[in-house]
Amino acid sequence: NNLSEAEIRKTLIQLKGISNWTIDMYVLMSLHFADIFPPGDLATIKSVYELELVPIESSKDQIIETMKKFSPYQSVVTYILWHYYIEKRNLKLE
What we know:
It is a single chain. By secondary structure, this protein is mostly helical. It has helices at 5-12, 20-30, 42-50, 60-67, 74-88. The chain is built from 5 helices and no strands. Helix 1 packs across helix 2 and helix 3 (42-50) crosses helix 5 (74-88). It starts with a helix and ends in a 6-residue tail after the last helix.
């Protein structure tokens, strides 16, 4: 955990089968970085649209830019978006 997010991303992306989504989940869930928003995560993106944080026609880059306003706590917002997604759909996590 001594490396920056950029250094971790640069190292892990070289591994076969590791994508940006995997890296986002690793630095968010395992390393507990505070400022991570995973733009490749479908639940977070759907929640961003459903909560009308961005217009429905917004691109991925526009969503990323919008979410930067929550920096340095994008990880907290990500958790809130996941909980919104789960609760709205009445999903049961076991």
